[in-house]
Each structure stands twice: as structure tokens, then as C-alpha cells.
Design brief:
alpha/beta; two-stranded antiparallel ribbon; globular; six-stranded parallel β-sheet; Histone, subunit A; 16 helices; Rossmann fold; Helix Hairpins
Length: about 325
């Protein structure tokens, strides 16, 4: 292949929650020193020898990290971690608004260009499979502005009739799209109905696949022993409580109200139920752990559909070895 026709090389580190993606991605970005053949255009050759070159920058692929003030409950990278390696698409939208996958695809693609123009390596990191597929696998998503009135109407429909009735509504209007979605995923079901309502066309017809724009090294993190991952999830939830998750939810409600983004986010939803007296705090914590374990299972189901992912088991391989393998495989591509 002619060099001029080569696709830009990027790394994608994906996997379920609590699998260690943040740490692995930051350390990988540091270890990629030497991948740039020349210093950034704004930097003189002399300064390139005196300043450390950070060869990787991270683009989040997490549908909750985009929201400001969603910190503890989303296990957002700390200020210290972000200071180590530049992160993108974190804290870009207010929780009072809706951030769509089509917007993510457009903004993430621009960030990839910016990073490549600095002769650095884009590292896409996250557990939102839909974002990863849209950005890296050529999934084209209709760019339809959120219709808050329609969404509220559908939310009310769910309260009155249940999630199964909502799913049946999509089955009747767009059976092909319904097959692709989980019956309980009311957020994406409502989005599909919303797009159809706005455009008059089925979401399944508007979502098309084109040739991927990038040469992607896919890295997946998982545990061979599922109980190992589940125990990590349970411990993480307890740590979030210790770090002040309850207080964070109180603060979010005071600042933004009970927004859809808040009530659709693991951890925050259950703490709201605790505030409402539906569950005790101990029950809410147990619910967060259970719901997060189920969420991790769904994440793995989504990512396993991508046969290009190179899987590493965090209960069998230490992080240093995983990072070495990522860097080595990147140079081989």
C-alpha cells in the first residue's frame, strides 16, 4: 500500500467497568515515547531534546465522563492522572443537557486529527461500545437534535406502561432496530423512536456502515475468572461511597436537579432511590454493585462482537506486561 493511502494508526483500549482501562491507557501513553519521527510544528528541534515528549493522548469513549461534575460515580480520572497525560472529551457538557453519540463521533474525530497533527498517538479509551463503534468501526449515526418534549412523553409512557411496552412500540415501528437493542435499554429505545419521529425514517435505515477511517489496534481488558472482575466492581463501589458518592449526588441534585443523565447513570440512580426512602443505604449500595456487575456483562457481550479485539486477562497478566504488549503490537502495525 502506498504510504499516502495508509490510514492513521490509533489505539483503542476497551472493556468492562473496573477492568483497569484508565491506568493501562495512561501508562501506555507514557511508554509510547519514540513513536513520533519529528517534534510538533510549533516546537523547535532544540526544545524537543530538552522537553519530555508525551507520545500518546487519550480520548475518552465513555458516555458519562462527558458530563461535568459526574466525578466519583463515574470513576472519572483524577486531576493528577489528567495532568500526567492529556485527556479529551471529559467534562464537555452540562448534566442538564443531552450529549448524543453523533456529537461524540464528530468531536472525537476532530480530536484524533489534532493529536495526529502533533505527531502523537490517539488512544481511545472507554466502555461505551456504541461510541467506539461509531468512531472506529464506520457506523454512521443520524445527527438529529434531542427533542426533550418527545423524550419526556416517552418517559411518561414508560412510567405508566413499563419498559416492555416501550420496546414493543419500537418492535412495531422498526423491528430491525429493536433486534439490536436490549429490551431494558429505554434510553436507546427512546432515541430510536425520537429519530424516527423527527425524520419520518426508521433508525435502522439511517444507521449505515462505511469503511473505517483508521487503522486500529484494539485492546480488550477482561478477567478470565468472572468473580475476579465482580470483586473489583464490588470494591470500587464501596470506595465510591467512602469517597463521598452520597454527598456528590446531593450536590448534583442541588445544582442541576434530577436530570435524565443523573437518573440514567449507575450509582446516581440508586442513591436517588435511597434519598426517596425506597431503599436503605446498605440496600442501595448492594443494588449499585449488582447493577454494575450486570452492566459489565452487557459491555462484554457488545465488545466480543468485534473479532479484532486482542484480549488480555487482568487476573493472569500483570499491567506492565500488558502495556509492553500494546506498545510492541502498535509498532508492528
Amino acid at each position: 500500500m502506498n504510504n499516502a493511502n495508509k490510514k492513521p494508526k490509533v489505539i483503542a483500549i476497551v472493556g468492562p467497568t473496573a477492568s483497569g482501562k484508565t491506568n493501562i491507557s495512561i501508562q501506555t501513553a507514557k511508554k509510547l515515547n519514540g513513536t513520533s519521527s519529528k517534534p510538533p510544528a510549533k516546537q523547535s528541534s532544540a526544545s524537543a531534546f530538552t522537553l519530555p515528549l508525551r507520545s500518546g493522548e487519550i480520548i475518552s469513549a465513555d458516555s458519562r465522563l462527558v458530563y461535568k461534575d459526574f466525578n466519583i460515580g463515574t470513576a472519572k480520572p483524577s486531576k493528577e492522572e489528567i495532568a500526567e497525560i492529556t485527556h479529551h472529551l471529559i467534562d464537555v457538557e452540562s448534566p442538564s443537557k443531552t450529549y448524543t453519540a453523533s456529537r461524540y463521533k464528530n468531536e472525537a474525530a476532530e480530536k484524533i486529527k489534532e493529536i495526529l497533527n502533533k505527531n502523537k498517538v490517539p488512544i481511545i479509551v472507554g466502555g461505551t461500545g456504541f461510541y467506539v463503534r461509531a468512531l472506529l468501526e464506520g457506523l454512521n449515526i443520524p445527527d438529529v437534535r434531542p427533542d426533550e418534549d418527545f423524550r419526556q412523553k416517552m418517559e411518561d409512557f414508560v412510567k405508566e406502561n413499563g419498559k416492555e411496552a416501550l420496546y414493543k412500540k419500537l418492535q412495531e415501528s422498526d423491528p430491525k432496530m429493536a433486534e439490536k437493542l436490549y429490551r431494558q435499554d429505554s434510553f436507546r429505545i427512546i432515541r430510536a423512536l425520537e429519530v424516527q419521529n423527527a425524520t419520518g425514517q426508521k433508525m435502522s435505515e439511517l444507521q449505515t456502515i462505511s469503511e473505517p477511517e483508521y487503522d486500529v489496534l484494539y485492546v480488550g481488558l477482561n478477567a478470565e475468572d468472572r468473580d475476579f472482575l465482580y470483586e473489583r466492581i464490588n470494591r470500587r463501589v464501596l470506595l465510591m461511597i467512602e469517597q463521598g458518592l452520597v454527598e456528590e449526588v446531593k450536590s448534583l441534585i442541588e445544582k442541576y436537579g434530577r436530570t435524565n443523565s443523573l437518573l440514567k447513570t449507575l450509582g446516581y440512580k440508586e442513591i436517588c432511590e435511597y434519598f426517596d426512602g425506597i431503599y436503605t443505604l446498605e440496600e442501595a449500595i448492594a443494588n449499585i454493585q449488582q447493577h454494575t456487575r450486570k452492566f459489565a456483562k452487557r459491555q462484554l457481550t457488545w465488545f466480543r462482537a468485534n473479532k479484532k479485539i486482542n484480549w488480555f486477562f487482568i487476573d493472569k497478566i500483570d499491567s506492565a506486561t500488558i502495556i509492553e504488549e500494546i506498545v510492541k503490537n502498535y509498532h508492528k502495525k
